[in-house]
């Protein structure tokens, strides 16, 4: 597979479940919400909406669990649970090391997430020094220029266009993702994508899409993509 890797100049990270362990917090919040209706937020339902814009994810959950809620009602209820959960988010293994290494070597970095501004601020409450290492953050739910959420390529294309100076061509961007919708979005954007999936996810169906699949960010070898090797 290494022969298929191409050198890149810019790196874009998803955030939830990739840099921060927020997917477990989303699961916890969602189950708390659907408990009211005696429903179970299963892994199968969750996989279907990982990485989506908030409204699309809400619509998916409402449909799959047959909830008697409108999208706006669901969003209001789930948002009320976030302030007590999201500030506890922790960095995932390898995230701090990789991001600081690339930043040290002046590789332009950005975040492209399906989330919203208010939840982003809650999740990064205790990680300001970390998020300051990124050139910019594009949040699909809040950004008016992101017309379609993942699996559409919009969030990655908008993110690439906002790098300082001459924006890189898509093929010069490397994306890190954990979710199938995100992998599909990156591929549609014509970017290489390293997938670091949840260990419950069947990656066989994604192996033809992802450029590389890793168990952890700790396993990433930067020089395979023309990036500076660890010191």
General description of the model:
- With 231 residues, this protein is an alpha/beta fold.
- 37% of the residues lie in helices and 10% in strands.
- The chain is built from nine helices and six strands.
- It has helices at 22-34, 43-49, 54-65, 71-85, 95-104, 117-123, 128-131, 154-161, 180-188; strands at 10-13, 109-113, 136-139, 173-177, 192-195, 212-213.
- A six-stranded parallel β-sheet has the order 3-2-1-4-5-6, with helices on both faces.
- Helix 9 (180-188) links the parallel strand 4 (173-177) and strand 5.
- Helix 1 crosses helix 4, helix 2 (43-49) packs antiparallel against helix 3 and helix 3 (54-65) packs across helix 4 (71-85).
- It is globular.
- The two termini are 25 Å apart.
- The relative contact order is 0.19.
- The mean pLDDT is 94.
Q: Helix amount, in percent?
A: 25-40%
Q: What structural class results from the helix and strand content? A: alpha/beta
Helix-strand pattern, N to C? EHHHHHEHHEHEHEE
Looking at the structure, what is the overall shape? Answer: globular
Mean pLDDT: 94
Proportion of beta-strand residues: 5-15%
Q: Uncertain segments of ≥5 residues (pLDDT<50)?
A: none
* Cα-based radius of gyration, to the nearest Å: 17 Å
Strand arrangement within the widest β-sheet reads: 3-2-1-4-5-6
Count of extended strands: 6
């Amino acid at each position: 597979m290494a022969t298929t890797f191409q050198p890149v100049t810019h790196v874009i990270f998803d955030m939830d479940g990739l840099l921060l362990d927020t997917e477990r917090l989303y699961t916890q919040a969602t189950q708390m919400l659907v408990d009211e209706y005696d429903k179970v937020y299963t892994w199968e339902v969750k996989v279907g909406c990982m990485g989506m814009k908030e409204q699309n994810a809400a619509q998916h959950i409402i449909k799959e669990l047959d909830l008697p809620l409108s999208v706006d009602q669901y969003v209001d209820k789930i948002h009320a649970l976030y302030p007590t959960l999201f500030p506890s988010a922790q960095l995932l293994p390898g995230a701090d090391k990789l991001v600081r290494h690339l930043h040290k070597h002046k590789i332009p970095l950005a975040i492209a997430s399906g989330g919203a501004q208010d939840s982003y601020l809650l999740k990064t409450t205790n990680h300001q020094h970390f998020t300051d290492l990124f050139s910019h953050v594009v949040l699909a739910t809040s950004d008016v220029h992101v017309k379609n959420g993942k699996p559409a390529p919009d969030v990655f294309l908008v993110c690439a266009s906002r790098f300082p100076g001459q924006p890189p061509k898509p093929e010069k961007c490397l994306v890190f993702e954990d979710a199938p919708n995100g992998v599909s979005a990156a591929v549609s954007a014509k970017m290489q994508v390293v997938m670091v999936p949840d260990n419950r996810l069947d990656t066989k169906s994604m192996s033809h899409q992802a450029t590389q699949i890793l168990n952890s960010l700790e396993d990433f070898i930067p020089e395979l993509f023309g990036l500076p090797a660890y010191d």
